[in-house]
Every structure is written in C-alpha cells, then in structure tokens.
C-alpha cells in the first residue's frame, strides 16, 4: 500500500492484482490463514455478505466457500469481471458501483465486509454511517485496514477507526494482524488489523 494507492487506476491494476501474496491468496498456507481469520469474523450460520471494494473477489470467494451468500461491489469494471469469473457458479453477485454508496437499493445484509478500501474514501465517518444503515438488525461491519509504511505511512490507525465507529456500533473488537506473517507472506512491521463492529 502506498500514498499513491488512493489514486490508482484499478482497471489497469486488475490483471496483475492477484500476484501479491495477500491479494490472490495463491499460496495454500496464506489462503488458509485468511480463511481461518474470516471464519472468526463472520457469523457461524449462512449469512448475506456485502463485500465492498471487492477487487478480484478474493475474500468474496473465501466467504462463499464458507457457505455465505455474497454480493460484491467495486468501482472498477475490470475487477468486477475477474470477481465474476472467480466465483462463477457460486451464490454470488457482483455490481459495478461506489463502495461509499453501493447500488443495492433496499437490500440489507448480515455483514458488510471491507478490506483495504475505507482509508481511501472521502469522509469515512459518513461512509460508516451509511454502511451501518445497510445492515439488518444484529448485523456487523468487518473492516480490515491498516496504516502502511514507515516513512510516510498511509491508512487509518486502529484507534482512529475505533473512534469513528463509536457513534455507529455498540461493540467494537480489534484484532491485530501485524504479527501473523502467514497472512502477508512475509514479516511486516506496520499496523494491520481487523475490526468487527456490532450493535
Ligand atoms: C486494495 S484493493 C482491495 C481489493 C479487495 N478488497 C481485497 O482485499 O482483495 C482496493 C479495491 O477497491 C476498489 N475501489 C477503490 N475505490 C473504490 C470506491 N470508491 N468504490 C468501490 N470500489 C473502490 C478498487 O477498484 C480495488 O478493487
């Protein structure tokens, strides 16, 4: 992740996006590490999961493999094409649209899942309120974010995201991810975490 990543041409990036270890999860150990974490963040029973900024559908696929129904939204048509191909034949739908105001009409979800996207969106407090409104009663936000880099770090520190969530969630659990090299395919020194936020 870099400062310029907030202004990336994601259509141009789509073809090679999965080459990063934590993007494509092509290494079975890395894939298993993410699958195990995701299982802990998602409800035990089959749920409707909205994956915002879904990219090539990597987490969408893990969620579908765990028995959940997935809707993915991404601004990049090229990413959406790859996600559709990756989840072909599964209980999943993909839409081109803005993660800040996803084009899902009156549909409501058990989980809004977002990895490495919130930090790039303008006015995250407003976005979190909107996402909260997309949840069914008892639903949860699962947000995987970080603050990447050491010289000019970019992203959202967990403390800041916890503050932003205070008005929209009664219970916020932060899980540190930096100390698990299996998730990233390498040792990392910067701040990486997941937040599960519920009523
Ligand atoms: C770092 S990638 C993360 C992809 C995916 N969440 C994952 O973890 O593999 C960021 C993704 O967010 C998408 N994106 C960026 N801004 C967006 C926006 N405003 N609305 C929807 N998608 C957006 C990009 O097209 C890209 O697919």
TrEMBL record:
Stretches assigned to the Methyltransferase type domain: 50-143
Any one Gene Ontology molecular-function term assigned to this protein's record: 3-demethylubiquinol 3-O-methyltransferase activity
InterPro entries, A to Z: Methyltransf_11 (IPR013216), SAM-dependent_MTases_sf (IPR029063)
GO-annotated biological processes: methylation
Domain of life: Bacteria
Record-listed E.C. numbers: 2.1.1.222, 2.1.1.64
UniProt xrefs under Gene3D superfamilies: Vaccinia Virus protein VP39 (3.40.50.150)
Pfam families, per database record: Methyltransf_11
Species in which this protein is naturally found: Streptomyces hokutonensis
Statement: the UniProt record of this protein carries the keyword Transferase: yes
UniProt entry keywords in alphabetical sequence: Methyltransferase, S-adenosyl-L-methionine, Transferase
First-tier enzyme category under EC: transferase
Protein known as: Class I SAM-dependent methyltransferase
């Amino acid at each position: 992740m870099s400062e310029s990543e907030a202004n990336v041409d994601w259509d141009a990036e789509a073809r090679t996006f999965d080459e990063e270890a934590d993007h494509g999860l092509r290494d079975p150990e890395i894939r298993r590490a993410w699958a195990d974490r995701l299982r802990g963040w998602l409800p035990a029973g089959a749920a409707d999961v909205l994956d915002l900024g879904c990219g090539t559908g990597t987490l969408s696929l893990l969620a579908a493999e765990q028995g959940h129904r997935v809707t993915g939204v991404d601004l990049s048509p090229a990413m959406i094409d790859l996600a559709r191909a990756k989840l072909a034949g599964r209980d999943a739908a993909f839409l081109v649209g803005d993660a800040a105001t996803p084009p899902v009409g009156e549909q409501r979800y058990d989980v809004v899942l977002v990895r490495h996207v919130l930090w790039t969106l303008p006015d995250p407090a407003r976005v979190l309120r909107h996402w909260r409104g997309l949840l069914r009663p008892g639903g949860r936000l699962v947000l995987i974010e970080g603050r990447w880099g050491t010289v000019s770090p970019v992203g959202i520190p967990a403390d800041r995201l916890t503050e932003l969530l205070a008005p929209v969630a009664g219970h916020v659990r932060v899980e540190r991810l930096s100390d698990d090299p299996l998730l990233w395919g390498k040792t990392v020194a910067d701040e990486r975490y997941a937040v599960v936020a519920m009523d």
